[in-house]
Amino acid sequence: MNASSDEDKANPGVDRSSARLVAVQALYEIDMTGIDADPVLDEFLRQRWKSALAMATEGEEDLPEMAAPDGALLAEIVRGVTEKRDELDGIIGPSLSEDWSVERLEVILRAILRAGTLELLTMGKVPARVVINEYVNVARAFFDDNKPALVNGVLDKIARVLRSTEF
Question: pTM to 2 decimals?
């Protein structure tokens, strides 16, 4: 389910769900390499995405149809997570079971939870249930096991604290 906004209606070729998926991939790269957000964003927006679109239009039949990510949302998520990482981890940590810490999470799972928590914390125009659903779908793109359910549970706990009026 995509969150609908005036921006989406003004530019229908831009996809917010794709932006979330690409943002998680960029956050993974930042976490793994320690590179700053801006060079990674530039690489994703200028190089990787254009290459993926070119491959999809050159007859690669096995590739799914791809929508161009909303660059503004992508940048907002990636920069926001990198700037507020410690604050986000402080919110995520108490929502995990006692056996887990943010540092113990798989890098991609950590990126998903940080991005979802950032949206819940700073992007109040997108309903909490939409944010949760979007990041559960992102988790499904990477995991076939119980990780999407974990994302759902953790983000639901966080949303009930940060956005209690929506529940």
Answer: 0.83
* Pick from 10-14, 84-88, 124-128, 134-138: least confident: 10-14
Q: For strand 68-69 and strand 14-15, is the pairing parallel, antiparallel, or unpaired?
A: parallel
- Helix, strand or coil, per DSSP, at residue 105: coil
The answer to whether the beta carbons of residues 119 and 132 sit under 8 Å apart is: no
Is 1 within a domain? no
Residue 109 is part of which domain span? 14-166
Q: 68 has which bridge partners?
A: 14
From residue 133, how far is each of 9, 44, 65, 127, 153 by CA, in Å?
A: 21, 24, 21, 10, 11
CA distance 3 to 97: 29
Intra-chain end-to-end CA distance of the chain, in Å: 19
Picking from 29, 28, 30, 2, the residue whose alpha carbon sits closest to that of residue 15 is 2
DSSP string, 19-36: HHHHHHHHHHHHHHH---
Give the pLDDT score at 47.
61
Q: Are 37 and 22 in contact (CB under 8 A)?
A: no
Q: Which of 36-40, 79-83, 92-96, 136-140 has the lowest mean pLDDT?
A: 36-40
Backbone angles phi, psi at 68, to 5 degrees: -65, 135
Q: What CATH number has the domain bearing residue 96? A: 1.10.940.10
